[in-house]
């Protein structure tokens, strides 16, 4: 009977052990590097509300003494939050960037402001959303655009709004409550409450009326919410059992 070669088995065990150790270390780094009110790290926000969390690694952050973050906010990895055009500026007494309670900023999003920028409560942003109060000007045709003094204008996003992946919000935009911006939309100007916008530049494609409902009508029925009082354990019992092929 031929001898069993133990070296490949030992090598596989070492690779598995190394992989497990790397992942444990990565989880520890992500947890230790997260920013909360209790563990602000190097940042000194004007306000960082209870139960809010900035995931590690953070994106570019500066001007945090002029940034307010409400309670129960989730700031994903690689999110940029900046107040002012450059680090180290004195921006005065007023808050520049204000996030309400329950705001979710998707991974790789950018919130960049040197004029007042307000995001209302319970706004949800997909990955890669870009919001700015400042844009390049091109008034002088003889000067490179990047060297011309930019224009700045306040931005406001109403509570309850949802901005899909890759949405861009330009200076001066005013979004009402519960606005939906479709993925890739470039939003400027005024958007009324309960409107859906899409395109570049974004245009209103659906609105809600108290009497008529959504116009044009929604193509799919509303999802059925989970009844109040249902526990996580009860939901698990409703899930199909993989052993049964479900």
From TrEMBL:
GO MF: acyltransferase activity
Superkingdom per UniProt: Bacteria
Cytoplasm keyword on record: no
Class of the enzyme per the UniProt entry, highest EC level: transferase
Keywords, sorted A to Z: Acyltransferase, Transferase
Signal peptide residues on this chain, from the entry's feature table: none
Protein name: Acyltransferase
Region (Disordered), start-end ranges: 213-246
EC number of the protein: 2.3.1.-
UniProt xrefs under InterPro entries: Hexapep (IPR001451), Hexapeptide_acetyltransf (IPR051159), Trimer_LpxA-like_sf (IPR011004)
Gene3D superfamilies hit by this protein: Hexapeptide repeat proteins
Family: Belongs to the transferase hexapeptide repeat family.
Pfam families hit by this protein: Hexapep_2 (PF14602)
